[in-house]
Here is the input.
Amino acid sequence: MAINYNGDITVVLDSQHRTPGNLRAFVQATLRSIRTGKSSDVRFSSTEKIEVIPMVTKKMEYSYKDGEDYVFSDPETYETVTLPPEIVGDGKFYLTENASVTVTFVEEKAVSIEMPSSAILVVADAPDGIRGDSANNVQKPVVLETGITVQAPLFIKTGEKIKVDTRTGKYMERA
Here is the structure.
């Protein structure tokens, strides 16, 4: 959720409700400012009122990389949104042309991006497996089209498509 904190719009990254022994309950929250991008830990008492700001999520598609920034377009209206690498984060390793993502907006400004749970990527470079090296579930490092290296089974070859879990960065199956 997004809240108004000290006149600045912030996104709540994490929150925990705590009730220590004989003290009053409080909420410990990690907030990130939309304006500055800085995170801070804040403690709210249980009686404090906060102003919640509505957040809008949109399905968007990855279009292209513009220098350091990433450009996404709305498939219905064809409006484009340019996001800095700080918001995209590790999602950049799984972005291919027309990849579908969910972008969260607060007051018309993009604040976060959510990747699908898995991505299908082409293997750019896969070294040959050593013959007879298949006693257990042996893995080898393969480089994918986006530049990320993942561990995959020995039978994966260059040019094949594989499915990768975007949360852990691990090989799932052939695609």
